[in-house]
Amino acid sequence: MNLLLFAGTGDGRLLAEHLAALPLQLTVSVATEYGHELLLGLPASCRVVVGRLDEPGMRDLMEETDCAVVVDATHPYAAQASATIRAAAAAVGKEYIRLLRRAGEEAGAVYVDSPAAAAAALTDGDGAVLLAIGSKHLEAFTLVPRFADRMFPRVLPMEESLRECIRLGYRRSHIIAMQGPFGVEMNLALMRHYAIRHLVTKDGGSAGGFPEKMRAAAEAGVRVVVIGRPAHEEGMNVDAIVENIRQRLEHQ
């Protein structure tokens, strides 16, 4: 059995490790070299494809690998990437499975539906803001008054992330380039060090360190604004996907 996995998260890496232990031919597609580095522990029998793919490129890869199933383990907020993978799979007649993390509602947090809405929730306030949302949606926060003084973006330690921060006008001294997820103590230390008063985050579930961010914010007295997940997603968690594939292998 051939399986194609589009990875890009800690959950994706964990799923790849579990699938690699099964008797199948696994191909893992990642967008960046950084994503490739996170998969270096996979067995040599697993093929890793590096590079951003458009829909035709995805279709070509699906047909080249002759995969029976396409598993989408991209970030839960990468709605466009998931839509493209889903469309490519449908176009070539491949079964599509979405990996989902469990979302949670946290008492005391302000939930909004977009980065723009999160930025709007900050315009009437004051104080330093920790932007724990990655680099793709930072532009929305440049509309917040005195954003360069107030914003502290926490991004992956990748050149493209740093370039985006600098291009948008974020202060170099405010850029926190670190690989998460982080424990409560690290989050708390950053909040205290930079005198953070507001945290903007996405609900990445336990795999994304969301509970730890929330606990640190509560301890530090930090107001939290959560950008909600795309609505109406359906899928399986890591354990369910592994069990699904294992049963297919037993009955093939």
Descriptive notes:
The chain has 10 helices and 11 strands. The longest helix is centred in the last third of the chain and has 14 residues.
Give a brief outline of the structure:
With 252 residues, this protein is α/β, with parallel strands linked by helices. The chain is built from 10 helices and 11 strands.
Strand-helix topology:
Elements: E1 2-6, H1 10-20, E2 25-30, H2 33-37, E3 47-50, H3 55-65, E4 69-72, H4 79-91, E5 95-98, E6 110-112, H5 115-120, E7 128-132, H6 147-150, E8 151-155, H7 159-168, E9 176-177, H8 184-193, E10 196-202, H9 210-220, E11 223-227, H10 238-251
Parallel strand pairs: 1-2, 1-4, 2-3, 4-5, 6-11, 7-8, 7-10, 8-9, 10-11
Helix pairs in contact: 1-10, 3-4, 8-9
Identify the overall geometry: elongated
Please mark out the parts with pLDDT under 50 across 5 or more consecutive residues, or reply none.
Answer: none
Mean pLDDT: 89
Main sheet: strand order: 6-11-10-7-8-9
Strand tally: 11
What structural class should be given to the helix and strand makeup? alpha/beta
Quote the beta fraction: 15-25%
DSSP helix count? 10
* Distance between the ends: 9 Å
Helix percentage range: 25-40%
Largest sheet at a glance?
6 strands, parallel
Key structural traits:
252 residues, five-stranded parallel sheet, 10 helices, alpha/beta
